[in-house]
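Lab notebook, design round three. We kept the backbone fixed and only want residue identities now. Task for the bench partner: fill in a sequence for the structure below.
Input structure tokens:
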């Protein structure tokens, strides 16, 4: 017990660095740097990018890759649209005040440039493995683009282990808690069902994951957004004041009210940025692993699609959650996390609590599908294609364990590794910025 306590204390110190102000500044700063280098491409090309992602959805012809643009986007969204959109937004506002949502928007807007750059590099430096599938992501563009295979291996180690926490046990535990609280189903039963459902998809590889997420992710996002929009429309007269309140509190201390203890401007910035980055994962290096599998002949095409992921996750879904919390007035109740979001939805619409519970189930399940792929591609980089099946089996088993385990240490460890993934990835992004800019100029010059 003393060893576990000491290890937990050590991990907590590392976690304070991994998600501390310097790292958050570096993550957001990289987004600003890429925004400048790409001349605000995420704003000028957003309409075209959304058309590519949601209307065209795939390229014509026999392009290299395993899944369509749309399936690659949905696979990446499956991993990012998760409990962070429900619990993370609530935590940011409950601790940092309504102004935290403004800073989440900022991380999303500059994070779109980061996500774009990650995808450009992922497709440019991807390789075809022994199974005939595409493999790519930070480990490959760091290794091939910078000629630093050891640094690529560092990223792969962090990602393959982090997947068991943030993309596995934490998610199954969230589902088990929600199902037990709402439907009185034992956690073990929930864990077994999740293991079976996950195995049925991930054992089929990226094509199976792509097919399922392309159906599941749009449904889960639309259902959640419809629930939030119902509450917003019922309170539509209060929306302008709510938006003004968010912007005002981003630059002014938030006074104590109700169960809310008050927050400084720095608290709003810190929790808004931290939860924003944690939600959309821009700069962490996870999403480009899915982008590398897309059927495309040019890196920029998939990159435009990939940057819509951050827009959908942060600017749309997180905003919906934040507005519900503020319009119902429950943001200052003293509650936090998923409990706060559940109470806000329950107060705003009949059956609102079930919307949140269903959202948690679908968001968490889809996150497990996406992160299993991220983890297996990272382990493949380290040990080859023969390691993929054993990794999938172990990943599935840990889902059951997560449903019944106490996860304070697992959460801290996975949170730490998730943050540490960003270090080698940001090095790659910053040093390979000229490549991103060159590929972008070449693409649009040919149009």
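Proposed sequence:
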């Amino acid at each position: 017990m003393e060893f576990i306590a000491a290890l937990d204390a050590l991990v907590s110190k590392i976690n304070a660095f991994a998600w501390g102000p310097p790292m958050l500044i570096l993550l957001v700063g990289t987004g600003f740097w890429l925004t400048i280098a790409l001349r605000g491409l995420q704003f000028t090309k957003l309409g075209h990018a959304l058309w590519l992602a949601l209307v065209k959805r795939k390229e014509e012809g026999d392009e290299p890759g395993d899944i369509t643009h749309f399936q690659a986007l949905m696979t990446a969204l499956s991993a990012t649209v998760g409990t962070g959109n429900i619990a993370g937004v609530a935590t940011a506002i409950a601790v940092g005040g309504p102004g935290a949502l403004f800073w989440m928007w900022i991380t999303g807007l500059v994070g779109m440039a980061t996500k774009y750059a990650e995808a450009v590099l992922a497709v440019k430096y991807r390789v075809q493995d022994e199974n005939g599938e595409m493999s790519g992501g930070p480990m490959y563009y760091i290794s091939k683009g910078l000629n630093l295979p050891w640094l690529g291996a560092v990223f792969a180690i962090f990602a393959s282990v982090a997947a068991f926490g943030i993309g596995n046990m934490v998610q199954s535990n969230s589902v088990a808690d929600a199902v037990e609280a709402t439907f009185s189903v034992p956690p073990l039963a929930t864990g077994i069902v999740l293991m079976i459902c996950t195995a049925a998809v991930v054992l089929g590889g990226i094509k199976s994951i792509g097919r399922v997420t392309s159906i599941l992710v749009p449904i889960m996002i639309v259902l959640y957004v419809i629930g939030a929009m119902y509450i917003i429309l019922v309170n539509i007269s209060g929306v302008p004041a709510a938006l003004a309140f968010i912007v005002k509190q981003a630059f002014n201390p938030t006074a104590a009210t109700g169960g809310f203890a008050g927050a400084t401007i720095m608290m709003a910035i810190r929790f808004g940025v931290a939860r924003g980055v944690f939600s959309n994962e821009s700069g962490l290096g996870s999403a480009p692993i899915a982008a590398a599998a897309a059927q495309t002949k040019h890196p920029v095409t998939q990159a435009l699609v990939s940057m819509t992921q951050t827009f959908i996750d942060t600017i749309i879904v997180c905003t919906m959650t934040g507005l519900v919390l503020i319009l119902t007035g429950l943001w200052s109740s003293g509650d936090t996390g998923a409990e706060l979001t559940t109470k806000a939805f329950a107060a705003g619409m009949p059956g609102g609590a079930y919307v949140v519970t269903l959202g948690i189930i679908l968001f968490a399940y889809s996150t497990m599908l996406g992160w299993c792929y991220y983890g297996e591609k990272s382990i493949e980089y380290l040990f080859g294609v023969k390691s993929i099946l054993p990794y999938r089996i172990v990943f599935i088993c840990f889902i059951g364990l997560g449903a019944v385990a106490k996860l304070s240490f697992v959460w801290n460890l996975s949170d730490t590794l998730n943050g540490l993934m960003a270090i080698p990835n940001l090095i790659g992004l910053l040093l390979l910025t000229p490549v991103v800019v060159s590929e972008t100029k070449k693409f649009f010059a040919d149009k």
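Keep this in mind before ordering anything: The chain has a mean pLDDT of 91.
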